């Protein structure tokens, strides 16, 4: 049986969706295929997102910014949007059974020194971690029960 795909969407696919992808992939191990994309991809993964994930031992340096349309011909079991714009622009994907929206501030809009921006990136990372780790625990518990 093939593993279900969970697709995490935000507008730019440069920060929040990559934070969530890295955290969920780490928490759920090999139970699912985890991917992220954007409705208007920025074309890069924000360097401060890579930095704050490395601080917690998760390497997202090889991630790349992708368009959500790249997944329209794939079976996607669950779609999770992490920003309001992506939630509004989100299509229905083939095989989609679940859709969740958990909005987070966009750390890419943080201003100030790099250290001040890092404070925002860490806060958003930690908020995403709480939500996505709890989601992963629920999925793993459900899988054990079935």
Structure commentary:
This protein is of the alpha/beta class. The chain has a single domain, classed as 3-Layer(aba) Sandwich (Rossmann fold). The chain is built from four helices and four strands; from the N terminus they run E-H-E-H-E-H-E-H. A four-stranded parallel sheet has the order 2-1-3-4. Helix 3 links the parallel strand 3 and strand 4. Helix 2 packs across helix 4. The model has no long low-confidence stretch (mean pLDDT 92). InterPro entries: Ptyr_pPase, Ptyr_pPase_sf.
Give start-end ranges of low-pLDDT stretches.
none
Strand order of the largest sheet: 2-1-3-4
Main β sheet profile: 4 strands, parallel
Give the helix/strand class: alpha/beta
Briefly note the CATH topology name: Rossmann fold
β-sheet strand percentage: 5-15%
Count of discrete domains: 1
Helix share bin: 40-55%
The number of helices is: 4
- Oligomer type: single chain
Please trace the helix and strand order, writing H or E for each element: EHEHEHEH
Distance between the termini: 14 Å
Computed over alpha carbons, the radius of gyration is: 15 Å
What's the overall geometry?
Answer: globular
GO biological process, one term: response to arsenic-containing substance
Pfam families: LMWPc (PF01451)
Domain Phosphotyrosine protein phosphatase I: 4-138
InterPro entries: Ptyr_pPase, Ptyr_pPase_sf
Quick take:
With 146 residues, the protein is an alpha/beta fold.
List keywords for this structure.
four-stranded parallel β-sheet; 41% helix; Rossmann fold; Ptyr_pPase_sf; 146 residues; alpha/beta; arsenical resistance; single chain; 4 helices; globular
């Amino acid at each position: 049986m093939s593993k279900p795909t969970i697709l995490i969407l935000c507008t730019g696919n440069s920060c929040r969706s990559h934070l969530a992808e890295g955290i969920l992939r780490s928490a759920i191990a090999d139970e699912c295929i985890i991917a992220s994309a954007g409705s208007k991809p920025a074309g890069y993964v924000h360097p401060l997102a890579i930095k704050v994930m490395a601080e917690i031992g998760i390497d997202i340096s090889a991630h790349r910014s992708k368009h959500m349309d790249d997944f329209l011909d794939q079976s996607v079991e669950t779609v999770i949007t992490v920003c309001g714009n992506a939630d509004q622009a989100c299509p229905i994907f083939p095989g989609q059974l679940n859709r969740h929206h958990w909005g987070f501030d966009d750390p890419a809009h943080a201003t100030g020194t790099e250290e001040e921006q890092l404070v925002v990136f860490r806060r958003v990372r930690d908020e995403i971690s709480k939500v996505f780790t709890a989601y992963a625990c629920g999925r793993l518990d459900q899988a054990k029960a079935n």
